[in-house]
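PROTOCOL LOG
Step 1. Enter all chains and additional molecules of the complex.
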Amino acid sequence: MIEPTTQKPLSRSEIPLWRDERVLRIAAQIISAVVVIGLIVWVVSNVVQAATQRGLSLGFNFLSDSAGFPIGETVIPYDPSRSFAYAFLAGVLSTLKVSIIGVILSTILGTFIGIIRLSSNWLVSKLALAYIEIHRNIPLLVLLFLWYSGVFLQLPRVQNSIVWPGPTFINQRGMYMTWPRLTSTGQIFLISIVVGIVVALVAWVLLSKVQENTGRSTYYGWVSLLLFILVPVAGWFLSGGNPIRFDVPELSGFNFSGGLYLTPEFAALLIGLVTYTAAFIAEVVRAGIQAVSRGQQEAARALGLNYRQILSLVILPQALRVIIPPLISQYLNLIKNSSLAFFIGYPELFFIGKTTTNQAGRALQVILLVMAVYLVISLFTSLILNIYNRRIQFAER
Amino acid sequence: MTTTTQTEVIRPPESPGLWKWIRENLFSNWINGLLTVISLIVIYWVVTTSVRWVFFAADWSPVLTNPLLYLVGQYPREELWRLGASLAMVSLLLGVSWRKWGGVMRTFAYMYALFMLIGAFWPAQGETLTMPMRIFFLVNILVTLAGYFLARVAAIRSAYILGAWTASAVISLILLSGVEALNLLPKVTTGLWGGLLVTLILAIGGITISFPIGVLLALGRRSSLPVLSVISTILIEVVRGVPLIGILTLFSIILPLFLPPEMRIDRLLRALVGMTIFSAAYMAENVRGGLAAVPDGQIEAAKAVGLNGFQITTLIVLPQALRAVIPPIVGQFISLFKDTTLAAGIAVLELLSVGRSILQANPEYIGLQTEVYIFIAAVFWIFSYLMSYASRRLELALGVGER
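Step 2. Run joint prediction.
Step 3. Record the structure below.
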């Protein structure tokens, strides 16, 4: 016969220290913190020691020195007498420029390819698949080299430029596009466009609220569209009827002047980034649309919604919830991938960093600064998009 | 009597003919018809232009004359037998795995044989590929077949095959780098390694070493201990927030600072460290996804059975989590494989930079960049596509998301 256990449960004080989970948890955290801090101290002290031994300076005061190197193209006016910090800023702005344009264009191209991938036309769908498979399986760097030295550097000389409608002139030195520019009274027109967008948005929000609350149709779509068109039209007449002139590139001497000029480096980088990222975005968009079950569409039709309503009220809101998170990471990839411009010589952040290292030494400080900027851009982008993402997500029940 | 009428009644419907298929899939309405015609014109234009360029206009001499450079870089030609020995090991094990696992391995074996055939009959214009090498490529096909039949006669356990793969990787590395003390195996500095060899070493080494680190980081991030979880999260997010080329540059600057000047740490190792750290952060996120997929009930049941925290993690959670993350890890391997090109930025001679240095070293190749880059793009495409195909097969075989 087994004796019934008379042992009473252990009280807190009787548990040995090495088996007490609370003690173990705290101990594990202290140990890991000590290890990590120790590692950081060890790395930093080693680097500092090695640097002082080799006579390398570890300060950041070189940033105020004159940079002394020219930069091929910048967003802000720059000349070599400016400081390193200013050159660095120019690099950051170039990175932002190519990233923002790249994100917009690759979203458009990627959505387009993702949608035709779902086309009921077999041939068109397979063409989209071919595009996606080709771009996803080749390194971006190889694509960039192909665009840069395979296409842009093989273009004809200035005298034999390729002419596209517009006119756009394409030659070894880059692309010269006809571009709309504001005339002296153009400001009024520009402001009227902004006002038009704001007024249209306000009308959209207010009238759709009214419709939701009262059930009366307020035609908010049409009203906003009308406002969006009418206000700029008024601005057009206010500005004297000619707010925009077209800046047409012209051959003067051995080069073109006027128009919008894209260097071959920028054009190759932009095209490479956009075509590459678009292939990934296309897959994201396709998966997002496919994630909305067909029944949703049929149910919406059964309720009597029209095609536009089905798309905007049923399919898109659900597809976007699936699309946005991977889309965010594609945008971040594009921003980080813009650093590959270094290989083809477009002077963005990383390229300027390398040039600064060649010019002033201080490789460590420069690379840390460069990394910090990328980190801030990445974290900021994911923060904004995550806030947006949280707003459109379903509340889980 | 009745049977004949019955058979007439239940005769299967007309099999969809070619015309019907075309009508339904290409010309279902006028928009689709228009799209089909436009697509056909585009395809015709692309195909004829590229065929004309590839076979008539392009000058493939910078690609054809230097196959060994693309394969192994400057690896001493008199020491190539070491690479041959490693290759023979791979052939044998591939044959054994083909018989054992079939499926993906069979495809790999076919493609491997195809690569060997291409190597054997490479239309080289220079004298770089000698006759013994070409014969050796053909022999490798036979070795693969030998491995296949070996596994057919003798049942070999999967664990042994996996062990043999690991051992062959270690042996290959020792063979390739040589041992200081042995006269037979003089040291070959990694500065001489190059081409596809380095690309594969960086990709395979990076993903293998980053795997345990990634698992630890993922466990750390999900840990209930705040200090551990904060440290892991910061590490993962910082690495994921910066470009790979930046990490590679940082490590190529920092690592030499640690060591005394006479002990130069070689470039390949610097690149490998950078790739590993970079890959570990992404690996951690993949593994974390797998960890999240393990239901809480599993952990609660394990606790109820009386397992401790360590046992729960290693015996219950990880085995289930890791099975779910094999496909994303293959995906990560493909992008790491493509990312090895960035090592060109810190003067590592991988496939792409070999191509670039061939272009720079030979003035007669000026203007032939397109040919070289197209060739390199094709090599990367074939490898990546094969792996993504394997990943799709693996996903089906594992039944991820079905259980």
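Step 4. Note key features.
Chain A has a mean pLDDT of 86.
Residues 84-117 of chain A form the longest helix (34 residues).
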